[in-house]
# Entry
Amino acid sequence: MTRADRALVPELLVEDVARSLAFWRGLCGFAIDYERPDEGFA
# Structure
């Protein structure tokens, strides 16, 4: 599936971005397609 194929990309508000990314990337196997580190967005 390409990025253009996606109809919806959810955004979640979290208190600890590093901890959230460790869960979603490490445990669940998700990958980051786009990020704005200065804004705490991935």
Q: What stands out?
A: The two ends are 19 Å apart (CA to CA).
